[in-house]
Amino acid sequence: MSKAVRTTEYIIEKVTPIFNKKGYEGTSMKDITDATGLTKGAIYGNFKSKEDLALTAFNTALKYILTGLQTRVEIGKTPLQKLFKVTEFYSEYYEYTMDIGGCPIVNIGVDANHQNLMLSQRVREIILKWQNEISVLIDLGIKTGNIRQNTNSFSFAKRMIVLIQGGIFMSTTMKDGSYLKSTTKLIDRMIQDELLLN
Question: What integer pLDDT is reported at residue 5 of this predicted model?
Fold first, then answer.
């Protein structure tokens, strides 16, 4: 690994939690140079702009989340089991994201909505992709006979994500993971009541 690559990775490691906690506008160049111990010139030698750095930091935080989620979901053998693994992952999500400053989708999504078009668009892309992946998982369960035939997969996926993100928001705001744990229990009941075959 070259020195330039090591420097870039070092910068991202140091600034990802800062951008995630403070947002795009709230993170100053002084925050970045203080965290990294590098000059402004050294930062811009590795990133085209603050926006470029913020987007890379968001994608890094997101990769951390998605890797953990995917690892958990892959344990499930059927589409239905995989859905329960999603809620299992999010029941521990508040604690899981503490080191990176909380949920990047909630933090950056709210912050960037009126501040930075590129970041807010990226958050929307991720949410739509997430909805689609859950919907596809439910459709697969319908096809394999594990989930009720009349299920509207996209509608269920949308409600599931709304509840998860609401639980994350409440846990973050109240600094109490129990809000999210209660939310995931509610989603588990939804899965049992609406998706399980009788």
Answer: 83
